Amino acid sequence: MSQFAALLRKDNQPVRYLVVDDSVFARKNIIKMVQLFGGEIAGEAGDGLTAIAEYGRTKPDVVLMDITMPQMEGIEAVERIVRQHPEARIVMVSSVGYQENILAALQKGAKHFVQKPVKPEVLYEILRYVLSDDPALAGAPAVLAGEHRS
Amino acid sequence: MRMELIQPFINAADAVFAESLQGPTRIGDLLMEEQAYHRKGVAALIVIKGDIEGRIILDLAPEVALKVSAVLTGGGVSDSEQVVRETVCELANMVIGNSVTLLNDQGYKFKVFPPEIHMNDEGLAGSRDTEAMVLAIETACGNIYLNIAMHHLTRRRRERDTVPLSS
Q1: Which of A26, A86, A113, B155 is 20 to 30 A from B65, comparing alpha carbons?
Q2: Residues of B with CB below 8 A from A32's CB?
Q3: Residue that wins the pLDDT comparison between B111 and A65
Q4: Is the pLDDT of residue A54 over 80?
């Protein structure tokens, strides 16, 4: 049994994630974690350009985005996704965690940052936080379908 | 070679291995090596250029890489060359990413080039004219070797900004 209470949408459906990383290996690791949190994989992408297309196609609730990738890096992809979809919720996931990178990503519209190696409990809390400011999503296990926050 | 340039890599490697492999680690003896590097197994070579320049080699036996990959993915991976490459690459990216963060926070600016993976009979750029620090980090999956050759090219930005160029 998972040690994490499921993060669900307000309609009690699983949160849908788009996982973006050029390493298949890293994607598999992140997918394993979000499934542990009760999430569902809406799509995967190995570079920023594919991520933009996949976002439009799958309309995920949350994007987990690497920074250093071929063709188009994560920060540029964030900017383009947020420009087209201002409601996008993107969490950067990178091993490079220096301030310039984090600030650049946040300025382009990312909601949060988590450094690799990703600790499941850290990612869980960040996802709870990111989901909690969206009226369409629960973001916290205590908030169940049909409930409203004050 | 200055220890302040080497220590962030050792610290980052130790922290990354302990966290990602979910077990204790132990840093073995540190050795200085002046000869060209001889691989132990599958190696990732990462080059750094900027205020500091050099290269880091992360090296592990294929069977260790498979054990690491099983831990990182929760099992369910095939024993393929691709998995071994991906594992070594991912470990290298995590170690370098975390080291870069530490060095960048100290004021150094540099570019990190993507890891080149060397396995089978492929060669590996050596350290003919660079003294390198070699160490093994013992993990539950087996030893992971680091070979680090690094030197200052220019003073870090903080020093350039505060120290006058001439008296």
Answers
A1: A113
A2: 73-74
A3: A65
A4: yes
Rounded Cα distance, B71 and A79, in Å = 34
Per-residue pLDDT, averaged over B58-84, amounts to 84
Residue B136, both tokens? 């093994």
Please judge whether B19 and A119 are an interchain contact, meaning their C-beta atoms are less than 8 angstroms apart. yes
Asked if the Cβ–Cβ distance from A32 to B74 is below 8 Å, we say yes
Q: Which residues of B touch A (CB under 8 A)?
A: 16, 19-20, 69, 72-74, 77, 83, 86-87, 89-90, 93-98, 100-101, 104-105, 112, 114
Of the partner residues A23, A99, A115, the one whose CB lies closest to the CB of residue B90 = A23
Contacts of residue A5, defined as CB under 8 A and 6 or more positions apart, other chains included, come to A38, A141
A85-144 pLDDT tens trace: 999 999 999 988 878 888 999 999 999 999 999 999 999 999 999 998 765 555 444 333
In angstroms, the CA A50 to CA B1 distance is 43
Query: Are the beta carbons of B74 and A24 separated by less than 8 Å?
Result: no
